[in-house]
Amino acid sequence: MNEKTREEIALFRYGLIAPLLNGHMEAKEYFQELEGKIHQVPYYGERKVAAKTMQEWLLHYRRTGFDALKQKTFRSRNSQEICPG
After folding, report:
1. Per the structure, how many domains does the chain have?
2. 61, 27 in Cβ contact below 8 A?
3. CA-to-CA distance for 60 and 63, rounded, in angstroms?
4. Would strands 73-75 and 38-41 be described as parallel, antiparallel, or unpaired?
5. Which of 10, 47, 65, 73 has the CB geometry, 3.0–4.6 Å to 69, for a possible disulfide?
6. How many CA atoms lie within 13 A of 3 on its CB side?
7. Which residues span the domain enclosing 63?
8. pLDDT of residue 79
């Protein structure tokens, strides 16, 4: 996964949590509303996102900012390529 894709994923995640950052919605009801919907996630395609996952994104964003929303990478033991985490 390249840096551009990681950035697109982070922007998608930010888009889901943004209304909560502005104080426009109550977190619990907002997450329940989004939880059952299918989202077009960059790199991964159509996916449902659990409320707990969105809560974690919100927490990580508040603690460390936008970079916390990027997909983690790691190096495989058998390869020098960076793989999605």
Report:
1. 1
2. no
3. 5
4. unpaired
5. 10
6. 1
7. 3-84
8. 54
Q: Which of 39, 81, 76 is nearest to 57 (CA)?
A: 39
Give yes or no for residue 30 having a pLDDT over 70: yes
Query: pLDDT tens across 35-82, in order?
Result: 889 999 999 999 999 999 999 999 999 999 999 999 887 665 565 555
Calpha distance 76→84 (Å, rounded): 10
Could you give the 3-state DSSP secondary structure of residue 73? strand
Cα angle 29, 58, 13; round to 5: 95
At position 77, the amino acid (one-letter code) is R
CA distance 7 to 40: 15
